[in-house]
Amino acid sequence: MKKIKPVQKFKLNRNLCKGCGLCIEVCPVKNLEFSSELNQRGVKYAKIKDIEKCKGCGFCFLVCPDVCIEISYEK
Question: Quick check: 55 and 30 in contact, CB under 8 A?
């Protein structure tokens, strides 16, 4: 999958994350995983592995039921 837009910033609010894993499932490059740490809810939250590998597709943002993910693109 080619890069859609270069990603400047990927932010996931770990304390809003309920650990459903939807973002992990839809990532076409498998660049999201569960953290080994727990958030304030007591669940393992999703995190990005490598910002450079992110293709900027926004699928993770679109499926997140808790609106935990913010993506900023380079201009």
Answer: no
